[in-house]
Amino acid sequence: MFPFSFNHIALSVKDVNESIEFYQKVLHLIEIKNTASESKTRWLSLNEGKQLHLIPRPNSEIKTNKAVHFALTTSDLDSFITNLKELQIDYSDWLDKPNKVYIRKDGIKQIYFQDPNGYWIEINDDVQ
């Protein structure tokens, strides 16, 4: 078995500035230096050395569905939901019920919302 650990997720985005603003405002992510190149790709820290890379592709078609998402965990899901409401960002449960929290069989609560490019983001309370 190979000893892998998660490094980063990369997303194609129509407008990198709009996406940076969204992730900073909604998830409070901090922009970090793109050390790989001098391109217009911008990086955000997901903490613990993990990163979100936003790659500008203004002329590319972006297709998404809820099954393709990335998930972040918080110890205070209720406060995060309040934040989404204040920002007027719609969220839903796994079954697409608006403004509902989904409770998995294992008791973990989760919600889903989309970024400006339609990518799905799950926020859950699976804090270990």
Overview of this protein structure:
This protein has helices spanning 16-27, 77-86; strands at 8-13, 30-32, 42-45, 51-56, 69-73, 102-103, 109-114, 120-124. With 128 residues, it is α/β, with parallel strands linked by helices. The protein has a 4-stranded mixed sheet, with helices on one face. The model has no long low-confidence stretch (mean pLDDT 95).
Helix/sheet category: alpha/beta
Provide the CATH top-level class of the largest domain. Answer: Alpha Beta
> Order of strands side by side in the largest beta sheet?
1-4-3-2
CA-based shape: globular
Instruction: Write down the Rg.
Output: 15 Å
How many runs of DSSP E, i.e. beta strands? 8
The fraction of residues assigned to DSSP E strands is 25-35%
Helix and strand sequence: EHEEEEHEEE
CATH superfamily of the largest domain: 2,3-Dihydroxybiphenyl 1,2-Dioxygenase, domain 1
> Separation of termini?
24 Å
The helix count comes to 2
The average pLDDT score comes to: 95
Main pleated-sheet profile: 4 strands, mixed
Whole-number count of domains: 2
Would you tell me which CATH topology of the largest domain applies?
2,3-Dihydroxybiphenyl 1,2-Dioxygenase, domain 1
CATH-derived architecture of the largest domain: Roll
